[in-house]
Amino acid sequence: MGIKRFKPITPTLRHTVLINRSGLYKGRPIRRLTAKLESSVGRNNTGKITTRHKQKGAKRVYRLVDLKRDNHGIKGEVVRIEYDPNRTCFIALVKYVNGDRRYILAPDGLKSGDVVESGENAPIALGNAVPLSKIPSGTSVFAVSLRPNEEAKIALSAGSSAQVMGSRGDYVQLRMPSGEIRLFKNTCYATIGIASNLDNFNEKLGKAGRSRNRGIRPTVRGVAMSYKHPHGGGQGKGGRHGTGGPKKDIYGNLVGKRTRKPKKTSNKFIVSRRQEKNKFKSFKTII
């Protein structure tokens, strides 16, 4: 779809970059495939804020997306590509030969009139959902199910994908979007392709109001707060009262420290962990 820029007639529009959705369907979604979406505004049942920086935002209708792709052996034609306000990836309305209509996550390059299918005998083609055991090495996939007969949970956002590295017995190695290499059961399903809306990371909202409409409240830097925050107070940046020290959150926990449990059951499926980015690494210019 690409991106959309504006003439700099105002300070806001000068830096605004949005996704060009001119080629998407502009009508209402299928009512049977929608549900009412209630916003918790980051509060629990007692009204206490448990998730910060959230608000209600603009009213949205939730689209029921088929993440399981259990309509095996039945071909379907893509009717149209739609925008989903609840996710960064676009969705596609598919009409199957048996009359059933479902929303699926649209891969990049899928268009109206294309035929998609799911199942063990489905061909390795764009938009088809097949078991990992049938996918050749080097293929990019998205919407991967973490366990057999479950909904997809891996690589669902815009532009994300995982790469099939090879098989090992009853398991298949996948390189995750984070760079981690992990084992999946070869009966888990994945969709061929890369999640659509590749330019999503280039989007710049341009103004605070557009972020508020998405249900996001402002985030204040710790160094701009009083001494009650570990980064606040004092004449210097970092640490309580400007004395320096490791970065912490408002609760005093170290920022950047691994929180994964060392004896977690799924650790045995991780072949290679993702590489940590060293923010303080110095680069020397070679002349």
Order of neighbouring strands in the sheet with most strands: 9-16-10-13-14-15-17
CATH homologous superfamily classification of the largest domain: Nucleic acid-binding proteins
Quickly count the helices. Answer: 2
According to CATH, what is the class of the largest domain? Mainly Beta
Strand tally is: 17
According to CATH, the fold-level topology of the largest domain is OB fold (Dihydrolipoamide Acetyltransferase, E2P)
Taking the sheet with the most strands, its summary is: 7 strands, antiparallel
How big a fraction of the residues is strand? 15-25%
How many domain regions? Answer: 2
Task: Describe the protein.
The protein is mainly beta and 287 residues long. It has 2 domains: 3-200, Beta Barrel (OB fold (Dihydrolipoamide Acetyltransferase, E2P)); 223-275, Ribosomal protein L2, domain 3 (Irregular), CATH 4.10.950.10. Helix content is 4%, strand content 23%. It contains 2 helices and 17 strands. The protein has a 7-stranded antiparallel β-sheet with strand order 9-16-10-13-14-15-17, with no helix packed on it. A 4-stranded antiparallel β-sheet has the order 7-6-5-8, with no helix packed on it. Strands 1-2 form a two-stranded antiparallel ribbon. Strand 6 (91-96) and strand 7 (101-105) form a beta hairpin.
Summarize the structure.
With 287 residues, this protein is mostly beta strands.
Structural descriptors:
seven-stranded antiparallel beta sheet; 17 strands; Ribosomal_uL2_RNA-bd_dom; Rib_uL2_dom2; OB fold (Dihydrolipoamide Acetyltransferase, E2P); four-stranded antiparallel beta sheet; 287 residues; Ribosomal_uL2_bac/org-type; disordered C terminus; globular; mainly beta; Ribosomal protein L2, domain 3; ribonucleoprotein; ribosomal protein; 2 helices
